[in-house]
Amino acid sequence: MPYLKKSTPANEPVDCRILTAALDLFVERGFHNVSIHDVQKQANVSIGSIYNHFGGKEGVAKALYYHLMKEFEEMIGDVMEEKLSARERCNKIIRQLFEYTETRRNIVAYMLHAKHREFLPDEPPICSSTPFKAMRNIVQEGMDAGEIRPGEPWVLAASVFGGAIRMIHLRLDGVIKKPLTLYYEELIDCTWQGLLADAAPTPQEQKAG
Amino acid sequence: MPYLKKSTPANEPVDCRILTAALDLFVERGFHNVSIHDVQKQANVSIGSIYNHFGGKEGVAKALYYHLMKEFEEMIGDVMEEKLSARERCNKIIRQLFEYTETRRNIVAYMLHAKHREFLPDEPPICSSTPFKAMRNIVQEGMDAGEIRPGEPWVLAASVFGGAIRMIHLRLDGVIKKPLTLYYEELIDCTWQGLLADAAPTPQEQKAG
DNA sequence: AAAAATAGATCGAATGTTCATTCTTGTCAA
DNA sequence: TTGACAAGAATGAACATTCGATCTATTTTT
Lengths: 209, 209
Prior knowledge:
- Two copies of one chain form a homodimer.
- With 209 residues, chain A is an all-alpha fold.
- Helices cover 65% and strands 0% of the residues of chain A.
- Chain A has ten helices and no strands.
- The longest helix of chain A is centred in the first third of the chain and has 25 residues, at 57-81.
């Protein structure tokens, strides 16, 4: 008998099933519009199991948050491993975020699009978390190395990543219809070169061809 | 007897008191963590009044949304009235948003920071609303006029406003500690000139400076 | 090897609370 | 007197959480 039912493969461990179901539901409807019973049904699991594993609804959200945060940190960590310039690092992170937005939409939505303060009141805002700090550090290093124009770190960081994050939001909201990866090159260009029509290519760019 | 109690001046009309209280509470705690009773208490109003005026909790949120959206539209409208270049218009809008973020924090937070889909499921995402469309139009016009480099409208719009919106979010989350207006000039500069350290000033800039 | 015992995970009906909404009564201006 | 609005106690539905029963897998005993 073939397993036509693809929704929740019963061989996955219970806690994974719970987290997966919760992620999908939280992103689709928002934390407060999802009941434990919804999660329980979608995960093919009993209410009791959810409480045993995570201690409640908030526990599920928190576990999800920590888990995905760790993956996010690892992604940044990988970029830091490579021997790259600050500018290349920033580009690579943006590239990755764009790709994840297309391939693992809900993960990105949960991390970048959710208002965690409304359901995880004890967590600091995500923009003060390690991965975001690391991103700002990269910008700072680029500035120290004379690669990025000198200036106020907040402004520089927002200028580097603001456009990308904005596009991710628009994409997640369904306002942008095409995959973000199509826009990557051009966005990078606008970010570093500026937007003026008559902006002269920099010496660097001219050398690069 | 002096009115020491400054919280809710009783002379304001009832519906205004309700909206003001709701705005503050929704922004501070999030829509789902605020009960009608909380609003009722903070507004010094009865539950009945809230239902008479707005038909319920969602009605209050919706009325607030429409009201602030209209103000937002008017702000953009004012900028469109003035005879300005596209670039100047964009800058002006950013300037205004920064100022409002400092002086009318909760209004900006409710419009730019809330996840309306989670409590106003019938509203389209705010980024597809008229003011945001107008902002994208300005960018398009700048492109058509040869003022902004040609390119994909989404990318250009995100590049123009992405940094500013990012900074607003950071400020609202309390991550940026100083008033945004301090950063305005530099942000504008980064946005239009790009971020490379050796970016040559454009002919335009050289003339201006 | 079979049976019994133990630990630990899973289950879901029952509980108690929270909260949006209703509805009846009270107030006041015209 | 009437109409419009304000008040807040009462209602009932939705929901997170509890807890004892049930099941499963592993170890111990015979």
